[in-house]
From TrEMBL:
GO terms for molecular function: structural constituent of myelin sheath. The keyword Transmembrane applies. One of its GO terms (cellular component) is plasma membrane. This is Non-compact myelin associated protein.
Amino acid sequence: MTTATPLGDTVTTFISLNMTTRGEDFLYKSSGAIVAAIVVVVIIIFTVVLILLKMYNRKMRMRRELEPKGPKPAAPSAPGPNNNSGQHPATVTFSPVDIHVETR
């Protein structure tokens, strides 16, 4: 004796499994396109930031070149203990010493 199983449950299970497989298959196939799109967006953002930095650098350089330059001091004096202005520069002299070599 065989018992009849209702076909409705089997067909519903088969369709839901088939839909899950199709959805996963779609995700696997489109994952490469998603990664490529992310890479392209990152490259575009990097390029825009680079161009903006170059424009800013060029603007700042032109501003520095166009601003009037004041007279430079003849001798810059640095305050502090290392200030040697007015003094003679320190010189190091080497004086050889007698070297005694012992002979046997």
